[in-house]
Write a structure and sequence with these properties.
The complex is a heterodimer. Chain A is α+β, with helices and mostly antiparallel strands. Chain A has eight helices and 20 strands. In chain A, helix 3 crosses helix 4. Chain A is globular, with a radius of gyration of 25 Å. Chain B is mainly α. Chain B has one domain: MetI-like (MetI-like fold, Orthogonal Bundle). Helices cover 75% and strands 1% of the residues of chain B. A two-stranded antiparallel ribbon of chain B has the order 1-2. In chain B, a hairpin with a 6-residue loop joins strand 1 and strand 2. Chain B is globular and about 80 Å long. The chains are: A alpha+beta, B mainly alpha. Chains A and B meet through strand 6 of A and helix 9 and helix 10 of B.
Chain lengths: 373, 298
């Protein structure tokens, strides 16, 4: 790993660009944002991830200035931005619908914000051309938004929101209108552009894959609260709650009672089964726990493996063939269904297991996460 | 072309032929005739019993005398000009009143919008004539408006409103403002609110966003509304004759007088043909605007 890893959130001396301080936002009786505090740093690509209605869009709209917090404070560059109207903020937004002005050409759409600023005319032209080049739509400057494709419109929207070189760019579900293939390509382009311009990006999305791909940090939200704010890797491998574990990717969750056993916990979870051995991320007391394990961490074999502590036997109930992966749904004798995943790394391998086969599932002591209930 | 497609095209054209073109040709023919003391009060009349020679003789009696007469008597061209002027001013007034109403409707809570729409259409449930008569009651010297203004103390003497051009403007604007409101409302209701937010986000104040986004994007509705007011207002007869004074010159009124007071059908026919020619320009422009809207929506 390079030594200059970009991790300002671990640097106590770093000054955050955006600070939410105990921000609450209510709409009538409904609390959209509930006493939320968070720091976002310069040049971060920050993703707000959550199901619809979790408050992520409200957070973004508060940053843009379309909503004001009911209580608490939002600081941008150390300055409280609540009294500043949207047109005076050095924050620009890329709308989910793109909100391109249909009566203006692509060129004029991008120039729209610049013309409202004090920038001289010849510089505006140069800047618009630079933006057209950045998002690779130089050829379409003279067209109207309804004369270009969805992917091109997305680029125009991005160019328009970047044209004024804002301190902070907000992206509301930026790729949701694109088809899957285009979405994946655009994700990488978005990261490139973010790096090239050095702008701080805050992206709102309900698509976990998108958040994981593009973001330097992901905030998982639910009911107006932050569940976890961390790097994509830590969100996936070290979720701090069953909610986060369940929201991101696929997971098996097994309820049980844990007792400390040296550095590990022994989790008794079913009659007649030997306890699961798991390693908690930090020391914890005995009690009820949830054991969360990702399907790809579970090995599936025909013979009982001997090198692992955690071994259970079951019967193959269902097989989902996804091309690159196969997911096996294995029913244990007590009825619990465990998902196990194997990579289809060999092209001509015949499928090793089929329906109703008796198989062994196994995993290591550190493969799963022990979460206190 | 198969028969079904042909019949689909033929039916509306037959409709137009029977209900527009034929009556127009009759009026055109009357306008080329001479006034006569007979029933109907003009000559020549087409008599097909004499065959081709009779038809040729009939044609030879038609002339443009009545049009020449319209050009020589300044009453007529003054009336046309005055009609255009009154219709134009009334259109601008309707726009000034109709746009804010349409804007308010489009921005009202969505559960209110059907009710507001109903309120705009509601006057049409009463006969047009009755509504114009009730305006007489409101605008006359002893009318409710004067009484109200005197009660407020704004004026001490009743104003002379009825039988002036002011009353005509009030009448036209009152009658036709729904035709202005509805198309503008239709375009404003479709306007994507995020466009205004985007404009604000890019540095516009609310007022600037209104002028740069809302107004250009409701242009089609504004144009449609203006034509829908201007076209009927130009040939308006009932409002100027009931609310206007003797000095209110409108071509619809002249047309009525030629037909019914003077019983000079040929001159009235000529007046009507010229009026139609004047109206063709805005109607064609209106149709082109409608077509543009349709194309934009596709």
């Amino acid at each position: 790993m390079p030594e200059t890893m970009f991790e300002p959130w671990n640097d106590p001396a770093a000054k955050p660009l955006i600070q939410f301080r105990n921000v609450t936002k209510r709409f009538g009786d409904f609390t959209a944002i509930d006493d939320l505090s968070i720091d976002i740093f310069e040049k971060e690509f920050f993703a707000l991830l959550g199901p619809s209605g979790c408050g992520k869009t409200t957070m973004m709209r508060m940053l843009a200035g379309f909503e004001t917090p009911t209580s608490g404070m939002i600081m941008l560059d150390g300055q409280d931005i609540s009294p500043i109207p949207p047109n005076k903020r050095s924050v620009n937004m890329m709308f989910q619908s793109y909100a391109l002005f249909p009566h203006l050409t692509v060129y004029d759409n991008i120039a729209f914000g610049l013309k409202r600023s004090a920038m001289p005319k010849d510089q505006i032209d140069a800047r618009v051309r630079e933006m057209l080049r950045l998002v690779q739509i130089e050829k379409f400057g003279g067209r109207k938004p309804d004369q270009i494709s969805g992917g091109q419109r997305q680029r125009v929207a991005l160019a328009r929101s970047l044209a004024k070189a804002p301190k902070l760019l907000l992206l509301d579900e930026p790729l949701s209108a694109l088809d899957k293939k285009l979405r994946q390509d655009t994700q990488f382009e978005l990261m490139d552009i973010q790096e090239k311009t050095g702008t701080t990006f805050v992206v709102v999305t309900h698509d976990q894959e998108e958040a994981m791909t593009v973001a330097s940090r992901v905030a998982v939200m639910d009911h107006g609260k932050l569940k976890q704010v961390d790097t994509p890797e830590r969100i996936y491998e070290a979720p701090n709650s069953t909610y986060v574990a369940d929201f991101i990717g696929d997971v098996n969750i097994i309820e049980g009672h844990a007792t400390a056993q040296g550095g590990t916990m022994a989790i008794s979870w079913a009659e007649g089964q030997s306890p699961i051995i798991g390693t908690p991320s930090e020391p914890m007391s005995d009690g009820k726990v949830s054991f969360a394990i990702r399907p790809e961490k579970i090995a599936i074999s025909a013979e009982r493996p001997t090198d692992r502590n955690n071994v259970v036997q079951g019967k193959v109930l269902d097989i989902a063939y996804l091309g690159n992966l196969s997911t096996y749904h294995v029913a244990l004798p007590n009825g619990i269904i465990i998902k196990a995943q194997t990579a289809n790394s060999r092209r001509r391998a015949s499928r090793p297991f089929t329906w109703d086969d008796e198989v062994w599932l196994s995993w290591t002591d550190t493969a799963g996460i022990v979460l206190e209930n | 072309m198969n028969l079904r497609r042909l019949s689909l095209i033929v039916v509306p054209y037959l409709w137009l032929l029977a209900l527009f073109l034929v009556p127009f040709l009759i009026v055109l023919k009357i306008s080329l005739s001479d006034v006569a003391l007979s029933i109907p009060p003009y000559t020549p009349r087409l008599d097909l019993s004499e065959g081709w020679a009779g038809f040729k003789g009939f044609l030879s009696q038609l002339d443009f005398e009545n049009y020449e007469f319209l050009a020589t008597d300044d009453l007529y061209w003054k009336s046309y000009l005055s009609s255009v002027q009154i219709a134009l001013i009334a259109t601008v007034l309707s726009l000034l009143i109709g746009f804010p109403i349409a804007y308010g409707m489009a921005n009202a809570p969505s559960e209110w919008q059907p009710t507001l729409m109903l309120l705009v259409i509601l006057p049409f449930w009463t006969s047009f004539l009755i509504r114009v008569y009730s305006l007489i009651g409101i605008l006359s010297q002893e009318g409710m408006l004067n009484q109200f203004l005197m009660w407020l103390g704004v004026i001490s003497e009743p104003l002379m409103i009825l039988n002036t051009n002011v009353a005509v403007y009030i009448g036209i604007v009152y009658t036709y403002v729904p035709f202005m409101i509805l198309p503008i409302y239709a375009t404003l209701a479709k306007l994507d609110g995020s466009l205004l937010e985007a404009a604000e986000d890019l540095g516009c104040s609310r007022a600037e966003a209104f002028w740069r986004i809302t107004v250009p994007l409701s242009k089609a509705g504004i144009i449609a509304g203006c034509f829908l007011v201007f076209i009927p207002a130009l040939g308006e007869f009932v409002i100027p004759s009931l609310l206007g004074g003797s000095d209110t010159l409108m071509i619809g009124k002249i047309l009525f007088e030629e037909f019914f007071a003077n019983r000079d059908w040929p001159v009235a026919g000529a007046v009507a043909v010229i009026l139609l020619l004047i109206l063709i320009i805005p109607i064609v422009l209106y149709q082109r605007n409608e077509q543009k809207i349709m194309e934009a929506e596709q």
